[in-house]
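Limitations
The structure tokens in this dataset are predictions for the assembled complex, not deposited experimental models. Users should treat interface geometry with appropriate caution, especially where small molecules or nucleic acid strands are included. An illustrative entry is reproduced here so readers can see what is and is not provided.
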Amino acid sequence: MSLQAFLDSAGVSRTAYYSLIRKNSILPRSVQAMAGMLGVASSSILEEEPPAARRAQALVREARSVLTLNPRATFDNVWHTLVLLDDPPIERLRRSLLRGRTHDLH
Amino acid sequence: MIVGLAAAALQGAPAVTQDIDLWFEDLGDRRMHEALARVGGIYVPPTATTPPMFAGKNVALFDIVLTMHGLRDFGRELPHARKVRIGGTTVRVLSLERIIASKKAANREKDRLILPVLEDAWATLKVRRKK
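Predicted assembly:
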């Protein structure tokens, strides 16, 4: 994946990216000051967003970009496709068959 | 080659199916019979009222397909099939674009119902592949 593709997927502009990598620290000075007073690492007083939530946000951004290019597509279909693409092919097939066969019972 | 909604699901389309359709060029191919024998399945030839089938617990999920609506013959479609890795095996899978073409040509009620899902999945795949 190219840098541009990565930034597009993350919804980050090139300007913002280069601004970030030029800084010594991206944490607010107030956070660094409080961590210094407590004698702990700055990261220890930050609550990190769960990886699953971050992944979901990235997928929502990607779904929106698909819908922008394909206005007649529906969010549900695009979203479920993107979620399934995170799984290996065998798992996608297993889910499809499981749901198909469960529906058949009713 | 895997075709139908199982093929669509392997490529990421959110479609449900009850079986895995396998498109064969030649039902007389000894490799098919050898593979069936390895998993305890048998080939049931067609009769006047029944299509060709597989029988046996381990092959109950699989259906035989000999022609696909709206597509070229097997030999001309095969080079365009996608290769999908499943476990330690690579299988040929009819591309989502060609599945959509076959569903449009078949035009049964169940095909018309699933087409918007397949077309949205195809649009999604195209955008992702461009990245």
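Some entries come with short summary sentences. For this one: Chain B touches chain A through 30 residues (CB under 8 Å).
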